[in-house]
Structure formats: structure tokens, C-alpha cells
Amino acid sequence: MKKLVTILSIVLLSGLLWSQSSPAEEVIKIGVVSPASGNYADHGALERRGMQMAVEELNQAGGVLGKNLQLVAEDSETNPQVAARKARRLIEVDKVKYLMGGVSSSVAIAVGEVAQRYGVIFFATNQNSDTVTGKYAHRCVFRVPPNMAMALRALGPYILETVGNRWYFLTHDYSWGWSGTRWARNVLKAHNGVDVGESKVPLGTRDFSAFLIKARATKPDALVITVGGVDRAALMEQIYEFGIHKDMTVVHTLYDYEDAWAAGPKKNVGIHGTEWYYDIDKPDVREFVQKYKKRWLGVAIPVPTQDTANGYLATRELGRAIQRAGTENVAAVIKALEGHVIPESESLRHGPITIRDWDHQFICTYYVVRSKKPSEIRDRADLCEIVKWVPGEKTARTKAENPVKLEPYPE
User: Which residues pair with 169 in a beta bridge?
Assistant: First the structure.
């Protein structure tokens, strides 16, 4: 996997991966700020594959407003300051009107601030902190994946019902991790559960032994984890090596396929929440998976992930909104996005997706999955089974819960 990421990083940053043959005046540029290095490099590689798939589909169908789309990429390095600088460069030098990417919630917040200041659109493609469409919501910012309020309102009751009500928390110590544990605690408190403790995990942690020993001593029913990226892959390995999964149920509040793939099927244990899974039984998902396999033949991860699906949806829906608006004007494109409904036949999920006009959150289904035992898997990609899904309309925050006020439309 490290070799794969290195190769993708070199190609990405050289500008060769997404080069287009059309003259500059005939293209619509989309700036991509996505990690090719750092804790979420694998996630970045998978979301960029989805973006590229959407660009190729739109261009093959005649483009947008008669022009081809062109992706112009920068490595966020999973660093908010670096990402903000790269976003400014894409706007000032490459003259992009549209940005997407991020993966890390802290990166999304930083890039969203830049986008609003410059009056360009930013699609947060794979970030889940509630603050992205809450405290840091902006007129120019849209978020594709569900936030952690939606995640835990879907996952939490299932864990309480099937596992138990004594929870210990492992929290990635930045905005996304805080958000996941905060909403898990809200669910736990609402159901009179018992919070037996928490360990905050710095980004870049590889040794989890002290955290796991502390968690085991509290004798929880569930180890509720909001940790991601390479850190999570290391955590999954140590949970298995310490035998933690024998004493409590391992619960990832947001399960990312890339991390489970890196850890391997034997160390993939527990019950988790996830935005998307390649085995969703829908015609559009099956078609998307087959297109991915054909387009990315021979890559290390043989199926698309939620990062891939979200990158694809963001790019496709941006292109379609520009086409509906009939112009590249940012304000007009924002209005074409606000309130738009993606039908279930094209949502890549159960149910439609609504892009809310007042906080720009995509309202979509959230899934609960069970890790399969090695003896249960059908092939090397088959890591989980879906046990439940909950429509976003039942879990999303209301205006009263999230009273944001977006800025005026950019001029």
C-alpha cells in the first residue's frame, strides 16, 4: 500500500494523472486539495479515483456547457495550513472557481474558509465533523458525506440494543474525533447508558498499548472508536494482538474500508457505522463497482470505497449543477445545488439524497455493518455485511439543533 501511495503521489503532483488535451479556454477547471501523503493518503487516493471516473463520464457525454472538465490537484499533506495555502494557489494561479477534496475535517474547515473568502465553491468530499456544516458552515461550502450526528444516531441505538450500554471511547484528538465521541455520548446519555471513560489519541499515534490497557480495565461492553487512517490500521492490529476483541465489542463509529483493508480480514472485527459499502444491493451501485473495476484494473484495493463514491458524487453533481445553471457563475451554481434532490436510482445508496439549502449538508442513508470472520468471506474484498441502514431524514440535525446562517451569495 505504501508503494501504491508513493506512485500515486508522484503521478498526481506531476500533473500527468488528470491532464486533458483540450486548450485552456475550452476547459472548466476543478481544483482538488486531497492527501497524497500523511495519515489519510490512502483515502485521498481512493477519492481521487472517483473524481476521475466522474470527469471521464461527463467529458465522454459531451462535457459541461460544451467544455471538458479538468482536475487540477494539490497534495493537502493532511495538514490544514498546507491545504489552505494549496487552495489559495489553485484559486490565484490556476484560476479555479470550484474546489473539492480534503478527507480530514480540519483540512475541510481550513479550505472552506479560503473558498468563502475568495467566493469559490468547495465540496467537502470525505469529512464528517458536524462543524463543517455547523459552526464553520458557509454559503460556498457543501458537504457530501453524513456528519457524525447522523452517524451515531443510526449506529448508537443498534449498539445499545445488541451489545450493551457500557462504552469506553477512543477519540482521534482533532475536530472529527471530538465530533464522533460527542455524538456517541449524546446517544448514550439519551438511553441512560454508562460512559466508563475516554482516551484521546494524537494524530500520528502508532503505539496504542497504554490506551488499550486502560480501556480493558474499565470492562466496557463496547470500545467505541473514532480514529482513522494509518493510525486506525495500527490500532486494529493491536486490538487483535492484545485480544481486546475477546473482552468487548469493537465499534468504529465511521468504518473506512481503506483502513480495514490495510489491517487485513483476520484483524477486522466488530460492528461499525459506515457511509457506503460496495456490496449495497442496488443497480446503480453494481454498475459503479463494475466501472471502477474496469477503470482501475490491477490496483491494490480492488473495489471502490466510500471515499471513491463520495468523490464521484461530488464531481458528478458539481458538473450537473453547472449545466443546470447554464453558466459557470458561482452564485448561480450554488443556487442550482441548493435543494437539489438526487433520485434513488442515481444516489449510490438506499433512498434519494437531498442537498439542503440552509446548511448545504447532503442528507443520505447511513449503514451499520458487521465485520465478517475469515471463514465467512467470499473473496479478498468481502470484509463486511450490511445489517441495518437508516435514512438521513431520521438522523440529520434540525434547524433548531443547527441554527446556522449562511453568508450572502458571492458576487
Answer: 198, 224
